[in-house]
Specification:
Keywords: Methyltransferase, Transferase
Structural class: alpha/beta
Organism: Kutzneria viridogrisea
Protein name: SAM-dependent methyltransferase
Largest sheet: 8 strands, mixed
Strand content: 25-35%
Number of helices: 10
Order of helices and strands: HEHEHEHEEHEHHHEHHE
Radius of gyration: 19 Å
Distance between the termini: 57 Å
GO molecular function: methyltransferase activity
């Protein structure tokens, strides 16, 4: 396929939800060794009341074989709210439209497990407020300089404060400032490969904070240069950053 055909195809695909299966065969990303989905499958059934914050299209929570008696999810983007509701409501999960800003629309001490995969922002004080004493927040987060080989291809070299903005140490500090005790903190960098320019376009349309304001027309010159790079050198390689954090309320 030509550059124009690859780009047009990637522009025409829906990016609702948090399902990346369109990239199968076109891009790859290593998964963290701790296996977040497996951790959820172990922990969620043991809880009485679970809150999944920023659930996206509900895909991660839907993958848990046995849910808690009370399971609630929040999401801010209307297309994802609709998708998550369609996916999770048949399993008894209440999906709450929420702007992802404090306060969370729940009473104090409501949940004994709060989860979130790749939240844009973690409102630590609110997490601590809605957790029951002895409850835990379990989250896989995006770490510092994630996929910055790709980000900087389009935006140029980023300053240190941007590169380090999502450092695990900041997560620990936020949790402790909210009165939580961090009981697990693990970080990894993981190889990503983009095999064609369509995969890049789809990824940047879906993960909108990577290159803010990304459009094909606005970034056509750099897209074409990247397409030519892939044609000459093979897959474009980047490295995602992920960390797992568990924080407990005393």
């Amino acid at each position: 396929m030509t550059f124009e055909e690859l780009v047009a195809e990637a522009e025409s695909v829906s990016v609702d939800g948090w399902d990346f299966s369109w990239l199968d065969g076109r891009a790859t990303e290593q998964r963290p060794s701790w296996g977040y989905a497996g951790l959820l499958a172990q922990r969620v059934p043991l809880a009485e009341a679970v809150l999944d914050v920023q659930t996206g299209g509900g895909e991660v929570l839907a993958g848990v074989p046995r849910l808690a008696r009370l399971t609630v999810a929040t999401e801010s983007w209307p297309p994802n709210v609709a998708k998550a509701t369609e996916l999770l409501r048949p399993r008894g999960v209440a999906v709450v439209a929420d702007p992802d800003e404090p306060p969370l629309p729940f009473a104090d001490n409501t949940f004994d497990l709060v989860t979130s995969r790749h939240p844009v922002t973690t409102w630590w004080a609110e997490i601590a407020r809605v957790l029951r004493p002895g409850g835990s927040y379990l989250s896989q987060q995006v770490g510092p300089s994630s996929a910055f080989e790709l980000v900087e291809w389009f935006l140029g070299e980023q300053p240190a404060e941007v590169r380090d903005a999502r450092h695990p140490d900041r997560g620990r500090a936020g949790a402790e400032q909210a009165g939580l005790t961090v009981v697990d903190l693990r970080a990894e960098r993981l190889r990503m490969e983009f095999h064609d320019i369509g995969a890049v376009v789809y990824f940047l349309r879906k993960v909108i904070w990577m290159v803010p304001g990304f459009t094909v027309d606005g970034h056509r010159e750099r897209l074409l240069a990247l397409h030519e790079h892939i044609q000459r050198h093979g897959p474009f390689v980047a490295h995602s950053a992920r960390y797992l954090i568990e924080a407990r309320k005393g």
